[in-house]
Amino acid sequence: ITSAVAFDILPLKLHPFSQSTPTGLDCVGWKRRVSSSVITDGALDKTALTDDVGSEEDLYEDFRSSNHRYGHPGGGGEQLAINELISDGSVVYAEALWDHVTMDDQELGFKAGDVIEVMDATNKEWWWGRILDSEGWFPASFVRLRVNQDEPMEDYPLKVEGGKEDDSSSGTRRFGMGQTTKDQMRTNVINEIISTERDYIKHLKDICEGYIKQCRKRADMFTEEQLKTIFGNIEDIYRCQKKFVKALEKKFNKDYPHLSEVGSCFLEYQTEFQIYSEYCNNHPNACMELSRLTKVNKYVYFFEACRLLQKMIDISLDGFLLTPVQKICKYPLQLAELLKYTNPQHRDFKDVEAALNAMKNVARLINERKRRLENIDKIAQWQSSIEDWEGEDVLVRSSELIYSGELTKISHPQAKSQQRMFFLFDHQLVCCKKDLLRRDILYYKSRINMDDMEILDVEDGKDKDFNISVKNAFKLHCRDTEEVYLFCAKKPEQKQRWLKAFENERRQVQLDQETGFSITEVQKKQAMLNASKQHHTGKPKAVTRPYYDFLMRQKHPTLPTTLPQQQVFMLAEPKRKPSNFWQNISRLTPFRK
């Protein structure tokens, strides 16, 4: 994903369930062992997780005393294979799934799509790598091993614009021990897509049957609301992916994989993949809820017992819950690589090309929805800073600040003019008045329902309705009541920005209706509650100026260099330079002055 989604940053000390899934999680062939100290007869009885607290505690005690964990010692077979290749002098490349931003000179920073030479994979969580002249540690879960390791570095697909091969003459190369062609490279990518999909389905099944099913049996430990917070809509994703993998397998040519035509499958399911948006947005809430629960030992033992009984690999629950997020990141990368090895004459070429664009659009949509959800906290904080607020909260109807600025409002019947600050949200325009002495303090005055309005451009000169001369003016006309509002900007360009902003507001409302974007009542209430707590615990407004402060604090906090950054689910956001007040507030909007 090129532009990224940055999920909430949670400190490791307060967030034990924050380790990202190691790269090997989506690889086949894990060897699973059963410790005799856990199950004496060598078989796992799934009925062991019952409502009988006593038997459950016995299992917990066995688990604790045995100190056994299923999985892959030292990072698993894949990690061992990587280190063997490196020891033999082979060069191992990985591609970045998303941005790794760091201020630590011991860590290697990179952007999504960058190619990293893996130099040491001894540690399963942090690998040592190199990009050009830079070397450093990086989180293993942020990368995906390159499918065709023997391909020359300069020909790597993600370094070519649009995912297409830059040099058509490089169609035939040596691969492994024998002669191969571009078709062999395509075969490798197709096989990876199919195998990782099958593995992914197994992980989703394990989560649904190994965790959710068992959690629902324990009503004394989990409420349905808690399970919804922890697991989100992962069951919906599981159902969707089962259908998707069946469609892929129908298009898979087992005898000649390079002839497989899988592009159409991605095009068919691009709309269904939008359900990942809800899951990704909920992911930080899941991490926080897990962090809270696992402060109690019985939950730690319960989750571990679920994993053992399902014979799942040695990854904590939060690692498994990160796999859907990682999966939606991988699709554009896999399709970009597939497109590189697909000849323009191939029957699948146009579909793969369209599928790559479609999956990039899905990623952009997820990013946009994440940004919108982050904005509701800022909007709630903004409202809490407004004095004398009346009526319903802004978040009841709105979730996006489109534009803001100062205008002169002219009212009937005596054409009285008033200087006001206006904030255009989706569905409504909020009017505020500046404090006479403290110009950074605003007082709520009124609001206008934009759903009933039409925008009228007014020429400079005398206005018939108000019988006054105007300049840089426009009107809002209510279609239901015939009420008319007249506004004047100071400069012609300011007027044009407002007219453009009103167009953007209507476009945003229409887009939300088409995509089904909405914010739940729980999310709205939580945002207002958080804003209220911050407001009450802070210093007086006259001292802290929260109206400015929240607008000026829109940068991501810098991560402590001692924390593994795979705790931060990142599909990165561009860094922003410090700017003045009005530039800051416009960052809540897609429209800038």
UniProtKB/TrEMBL annotation:
What UniProt keywords are attached to this protein's entry?
A: Cytoplasm, Guanine-nucleotide releasing factor, SH3 domain
Question: Principal place where this protein is found?
Answer: cytoplasm
Q: Which domain of life is it from?
A: Eukaryota
Name the SUPFAM superfamilies on file. Answer: DBL homology domain (DH-domain) (SSF48065), PH domain-like (SSF50729), SH3-domain (SSF50044)
Report domain PH positions. 400-507
Matching entries from SMART domains are given as: PH, RhoGEF, SH3
Gene3D superfamilies per record: Dbl homology (DH) domain, Pleckstrin-homology domain (PH domain)/Phosphotyrosine-binding domain (PTB), SH3 Domains
SH3 domain location, by residue? 89-148
Locations listed in the record:
Cytoplasm
Regions of biased composition (Basic and acidic residues) lie at 156-167
Q: Where is this region: Disordered?
A: 156-178
Domain DH span(s) in chain numbering: 185-369
**Entry-linked CDD domains:** PH_Collybistin_ASEF (cd01224), RhoGEF (cd00160), SH3_ASEF (cd11973)
GO biological process terms, semicolon-separated: intracellular signal transduction
Supply the InterPro entries for this chain. Answer: DBL_dom_sf (IPR035899), DH_dom (IPR000219), GDS_CDC24_CS (IPR001331), PH-like_dom_sf (IPR011993), PH_domain (IPR001849), SH3-like_dom_sf (IPR036028), SH3_domain (IPR001452), SOS1_NGEF_PH (IPR055251)
Q: Provide a GO CC annotation, any one.
A: cytoplasm
A single Gene Ontology MF term assigned here is: guanyl-nucleotide exchange factor activity
Q: What is this protein called?
A: Rho guanine nucleotide exchange factor 4
Q: From what organism does this protein derive?
A: Eudyptes chrysocome (Western rockhopper penguin)
